[in-house]
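FW: tagging you since you asked about this chain on Friday. Here's the raw sequence from the shared folder, copied in full. Didn't touch anything.
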Amino acid sequence: MTDPFYYLLPGLLVFAITYGALEVAGVIKNSRVNGVIALVIAFFAISSPQVVQLTYSVMPYMALLFIAIFFIGILLSPIRGGEKQKNYELIAIICALGLVWLSSQESLVARLLPGLPKTDLLTILGLILIIIIFLMVYRAWG
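HL: got it, structure written out here
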């Protein structure tokens, strides 16, 4: 007997992608009908062991793709909107990219700040990034 949770994740993934595609396409205007169609397709998908195995092998790549799409959306949000909050998002993105870049530049950090260890500098920049994120949330909730 197999574990029922083994089929839950692939079923939810197929359901979510199918439902999202049906909603975006707008072929059927009723979202309940889209939900039923997506549910039926998800049940068909998990009834085949090959599809479940394929879904498990593709899931890590899909997660990376969704993270990349989310990051690109955040990166492009200051360009799309003219709100003041968007400036904080841009600063947070620049700080995050700076953290990634500084983590690979040991000799530069040692020359610029000889008395400060690299880990302390990254900690300080990380705290600044967290403060900027809190400011973004505070301004968004007004």
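FW: Residues 81-142 form one domain.
HL: agreed, and The chain has two domains: 1-64, 81-142.
FW: great, closing this out.
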